[in-house]
Amino acid sequence: MVTIPLLAHFYGGMASAGLLVTFLVFGDLFAIRYYYKSLRWEHIKKLYPYALAGISIALLVGGVISDNQFRNVIGVSVLLCLGLIFYRDYSGGSDGFTRKNWFARILGVTGGFATMIGNAAGPIFNLYLLSMRLPKESFIATGAVFYLSLNILKIPLHFFVWESISMETLQLNLVMLPAVWLGSVTGKYLVRFIPEREFRIFVTVLIALSAVLLFFK
After folding, report:
1. What span, in angstroms and rounded, lies between the C-alpha atoms of 185 and 165?
2. Closest Cα partner for 158 from 56, 14, 36, 60?
């Protein structure tokens, strides 16, 4: 998630979205290879219709909405949702709203829109997976499969509709592929040493920081 504002700063909003999506596909493939057996399909299948609706909406308004305006809205939304999750965890309450259908629908549409506009859906979908209280291996595998399916769908849209993917950006993706592989190997190694509770805290902090970074170009 840290790469989103960095790429947007150096390449611009639309161009950075096309450049990053291919990197994300590589990363998803590595994650699935390591953790596929821990996949919890039932937690993401109901998100697909709403995520696809969000992507469709993003295609229509992508040429109109300001990148900065959208990132601000997403950042506020993520922080509010994270606040609700934090309150539930530390107030001793039940799963409550996070198990409601409307919660999945809102996050699905919002996440689909965010992933198309700026690959910024990580905090939103991670928030949903976090609310399901999945073990860390299942959290990684389930998210990777969901992200991969959406990112593969987005590539032709970036290439033919927004023209934010070109042969030049693909060449840069291939050059940086070893770095993506190194990051995935490092992540797999470190995850083994992080206990479940600390992993949840780490993801929560990462979501919060990612949301805050969305306010900065």
Report:
1. 27
2. 14
Closest CA to 30 of 165, 148, 151: 148
Q: How far apart are CA 82 and CA 122, in angstroms?
A: 13
20: amino acid identity, one letter: L
pTM listed for this prediction: 0.70
Helix (H, G, I), strand (E, B) or coil at 100: coil
CB of 28 closer than 8 Å to CB of 155 = no
Q: How many domains are contained in the chain?
A: 1
91 pLDDT tier (thresholds 50, 70, 90): low
Q: What domain range includes position 40?
A: 3-213
- SS3 call for 188: helix
pLDDT at 36 over 70: yes
SS3 118: helix
Residue identified by tokens 């950042």 is: 75
Q: Is the per-residue pLDDT at 178 higher than 80?
A: yes
| pLDDT of 96 higher than 60 | no
pLDDT score, position 59 = 82
